[in-house]
Amino acid sequence: MKLNFTPRRTPVAGRSRLAARDLLAEAVAGVLQRPARSALTSLGTVLGVGAFVAVLGLTGTAASQIDTRFNALSATEVTVEDTGGRDAGRVALSFPKDADARMERLNGTEAAGVYWKVRLDPGQTIRSSPIGAANGAVARTPVVAASPGVLAAAGPHFTQGRAYDTFHDSGRQRVAVIGSSIAARLGIHTLRTQPAVFIGDTPFTVIGIMDDVRRKPDLLLSVLVPRTTAEHVWGQPKDERAKMLVSTRLGAATQIADEAPLALRPDHPEYLRPIPPPDPRALRTAVGDDLGQLFLLLAVVCLVIGAVGIANTTLVAVMERTGEIGLRRALGARSRHITVQFLTESGALGLLGGVVGTSVGTAVVVAVSAFREWTPVIAPLTLAAAPALGLATGLLAGLYPAWRASRVPPAEALRR
Q1: Residue 277: inside a domain
Q2: Which segments in the chain show pLDDT lower than 70?
Q3: What is the pLDDT of residue 3?
Q4: Which domain-ending residue is among 209, 238, 264?
Q5: Mind listing the pLDDT tens digit for each residue in 172-184?
Q6: Same domain? 353 vs 226
Q7: How far is CA 215 from the centre of its chain?
Q8: pLDDT tens for residues 391-407?
Q9: CA gap 303, 53 in Å, rounded
Q10: Which has the closest alpha carbon to 146: 194, 192, 76, 210?
Q11: What is the pTM of this model?
C-alpha cells in the first residue's frame, strides 16, 4: 500500500508594515520630545517662509498703492513738446499766444500752460539787491518763462503770496514766483515789503513763495516769470524749445494727447509732439520685479539657513537614537521604514516652520499696511504655497540624515 504525503508549508512570518497613523504618531513624538530644539530648528524656516509671504504681500500692496497714486497724478498729466517739425530752424516757438485758452476748451482739460528755460547772458546772476553780487546772490538758478496755466497745472502750495494770472501775463508785468529755498538764499522772508529779485539788471517783484508742487518739482528750484514778459525781455526760446504742461481729468489724458496738436496748431500739427502718460501696469511690473528680486533673495537665504538647521538637527537625532534604530531593525523594521520615519520628522519640522512663517509674514503685511494706511493685498495662492514651501524645505533637508539612519547596521546599533 502506497501512501502519499503532501508536505505542509511552513508558515512564513509576514513582512513588517508601518501604517500611516503610526508613522505620523512617531514623527510627532520625535518633534515633541525636544520642543526647544524643534522650535530653534524651525526658526530658519519660519524666517524664510515669513520673508517669502511678506515680500509677495508687500510687493502686491505697494503695487496697488502705485496704481492709485499713478492714476491720481501721473495718469492725469500730458506733456506737449515743441519740435518745430521741418521748420525747427526757422520757427523758434510753435505754440500760439492763446495756447492756454485753446487747450482749456478741450473737454477733460483742467489746466494747461507753456513754459521754457530762459537763456541768460554769461555773468548774469539772480540777486536781491540792484548793485553788485551782494550776499544772497544765487548763480546758475534757472529762470523759467511760464504762462499762468503752468502754475495752475503744477498745483503749487504757497507759503506767502499767490501765483500771477492772465492780467500779469497780458500786461507784461515784471513779477516773479520763487521757491522757498531760493527765497531763503536771497534773504526774502516776507512779501509785505514787496521785495524784488534782479535777474541781471532787470527787477521783478516777488508776488509768491511756494514750498511744494504736485507736478514738476523742478519748478521749486527756478524763478518763474510770465511768458509774455520773458518774450519781451529775452525773446523767444533759444537753447531749449518750449513745452506745455497739461493737467487733465482722470481718464482723459490719452484723448487730450491725441487732440492737442490739432487744437493748438491746426495749420501745422506736426510742429507739436504730445507725450501721454505711460502705462501704469508697466510701472507696477517694474517696481514689483525690483522689490521681488531684492527680497526674495533674502527669503532664499533664510530658507537655506533653515534647511541647514533642520539637516543638522536631524543628523544629530540619528546619532543620538542609534540604539532605537537598531532595536526597531531587530524587531522587523525595514530600511525604508527608518528612512520614511526620519523624513517625516524633518518634513514635520519644515511644515511647522512654514505654517508659523506664513502667519508671521501675513501679520507683517497687515501691520505695515495699517501703519501706512494701505489696503493689504496677499494672493491666496501665496498663502497656500507658503506652508508647502516649508514642507519641501524640511523634506530636502532630511534626505541625507534619513538615508544615513537607514544604513545603520542593526547589530552594531544594539551594541552601542
Answers
A1: no
A2: 1-20, 22-23, 26-27, 30-32, 34, 37, 40-41, 63-74, 131-139, 278-296, 298-299, 302-303, 306, 309-310, 313-315, 317-324, 329-331, 408, 410-416
A3: 44
A4: 264
A5: 999 999 999 999 9
A6: no
A7: 20
A8: 888 888 778 777 777 77
A9: 12
A10: 210
A11: 0.56
Angle between helix axes 35-72 and 20-33 (nearest 10 degrees) is 90
**294, 348: one domain:** yes
Q: What is the DSSP letter of 366?
A: H
Q: How far apart are the first and last CA of the chain?
A: 61
Strand, helix or coil at 353?
helix
Q: Are 104 and 245 contained in the same domain?
A: yes
In 3D space, the residue among 155, 149, 144, 142 whose CA is nearest the CA of residue 215 turns out to be 155
CB 372 within 8 A of CB 64: no
The answer to whether position 3 is within a domain reads no
Other CB atoms within 10 Å distance of the CB of residue 402: 25
d(CA 255, CA 72): 17
In the chain, how long is the greatest CA-to-CA distance?
Answer: 149
User: Domain count of the chain?
Assistant: 2
| Residues 41 and 145 placed together within one structural domain of the fold | no
102 and 249 both lie in a single domain:
yes
- Across 221-300, the runs of DSSP E, i.e. the strands, are 223-226, 243-248, 272-275
Residue 81 lies in a domain: no
Q: Which domain holds residue 233?
A: 95-264
Distance CA 309, CA 203 (A): 74
Q: Is the dihedral of CA 29, 35, 41, 45 positive or negative?
A: positive
d(CA 351, CA 131): 78
Q: Are strands 202-213 and 109-117 parallel, antiparallel or unpaired?
A: unpaired
Q: Name the domain boundary from 197, 229, 264.
A: 264
Helix (H, G, I), strand (E, B) or coil at 114: strand
212-252: pLDDT as tens digits: 998 899 999 999 999 999 999 999 998 889 999 999 988 88
Question: Which of 50, 62, 51 has its CA nearest to residue 286?
Answer: 62
* In a shared domain, residues 181 and 117: yes
89 is written with which cell numbers?
Answer: 530752424
